[in-house]
Amino acid sequence: TRHRLPLTINRVGSMFTLFFTDARVIDYASAKKSDTGKFAVYFREMLNRGIYLPPSQYEAAFVSAAHAESDIDKTIAAAEPSLLRAFGL
After folding, report:
1. By 3-state DSSP, what share of the chain in percent is helix, strand and coil, each rounded to 5?
2. How far apart are CA 64 and CA 52, in angstroms?
3. How far apart are alpha carbons 87 and 89 in whole angstroms?
4. Pairing relation of β-strands 61-62 and 15-19?
5. What's the angle, vertex CA 33, arms to CA 4 and CA 18, rounded to 5?
6. Percent share of the chain, pLDDT over 90
7. pLDDT at res. 88
8. How much is the CA Rg of the chain, to the nearest whole Å?
9. 56: closest CA among 44, 41, 39?
10. Would residue 5 be called left, alpha or beta, if left means φ above 0 and alpha means ψ between -120 and 50 degrees?
11. Is the pLDDT of residue 2 over 80?
12. pTM (2 d.p.)
């Protein structure tokens, strides 16, 4: 089953941040409207699956040449169940 989750991804180059809101995040005020509780669940679930992300949605994650395609595949595989858990689905 596919779910439409209220998420916003901001990125510049290889830096990205996932915000738990369906509103555009353009500054600190709009970022503060994100659900940090859901982000905390997502962060812990990803960590439990071996994916080390920044512990705050106010920080950026990076993809670099040091990441192999298998690292990206592992991250994608971990993201779906982690997001579903964060939203209680």
Report:
1. 40, 15, 45
2. 14
3. 6
4. antiparallel
5. 50
6. 92
7. 92
8. 13
9. 39
10. beta
11. no
12. 0.90
